[in-house]
Amino acid sequence: MLQIKNLYKKLSETFSIEIPNLSINKGEKVLLLGENGSGKSSLLRIIAGIWKPDKGTIIKSYNVQSYSPPDFSLIPDLKVRTIWEAYTAIWNAHWELIKVFNLEELFTLPCRALSDGQKQRLLLSMVLVKSADVYLLDEPERSLDKHYTNELINILNRIHKTFIIATHDRTLIEKLHSRKIELKNGKVICEC
Ligand SMILES: Nc1ncnc2c1ncn2[C@@H]1O[C@H](COP(=O)(O)OP(=O)(O)OP(=O)(O)O)[C@@H](O)[C@H]1O
Ligand SMILES: [Mg+2]
To answer: Which one of 21, 118, 143, 171 is least enclosed by Cβ atoms within 10 Å?
Structure first.
């Protein structure tokens, strides 16, 4: 599904991503772990195709991916209902997302009136509603309370798609059935 070979990307004088070999199979859920600045978001950006590697190859044997960047922005005056109707019209699918993230209670609000956690519920729904083969999520549990973090984990455990997720969240690490890859200083230091 995804094969990384001899990947090298220099980001600064002191930091580079270096991954000699990494394969991710169809349907696998992979958590990218590691301390602040270890390279998780950078690796997701490279896999998403936003950043080009300096060297190496990334072979993708799939068509569509859905990416939730850490700095996703919403148009302040748009109402949640308008966004959601546009997304479901495009993707023609909405699983149980509307129930899981309880978007209906936010429908009448413009994006500028959403709390951080409410914004994250909308953003996650927008990313997950897209019918993609691979989903790249950067700290998807950000700003979610305990209830919605558990809802997120439940839905991820139920979806049989490939997910690559950067996280620090203990609950996600413990409860999501996943392979764990730990990065340090741009390199893989542990796989389990
Ligand atoms: N656009 C950029 N230009 C130069 N260096 C960058 C850039 N983006 C990130 N870096 C550097 O790359 C390193 C890895 O950053 P990255 O954002 O990938 O870490 P992370 O593992 O996602 O950290 P966090 O847990 O804080 O989200 C850091 O040292 C950071 O300063
Ligand atoms: Mg990050």
So the answer is: 21
Structural domains of the chain, with CATH: 2-191 (3.40.50.300)
185 Cβ below 6 A of ligand 1? no
Q: DSSP state, 39?
A: S
Distance of CA 120 to the CA centre of its chain: 12
CA 185–ligand 2 middle distance (angstroms):
13
**pTM for the structure as a whole:** 0.95
138 alpha carbon, closest ligand: 2
Pick the atom of ligand 1 nearest to 45's CA: 18
> Which residue type is seen at 168?
H
- Per-position pLDDT tens, the chain of length 192: 899 999 999 999 999 999 999 999 999 999 999 999 999 999 999 999 999 999 999 999 988 899 998 877 899 999 999 999 988 888 866 667 778 999 999 999 999 999 999 999 999 999 999 889 999 999 999 999 999 999 999 999 998 899 999 999 999 999 999 999 999 999 999 987
Q: How many Å lie between the centroid of ligand 1 and the Cα of residue 33?
A: 13
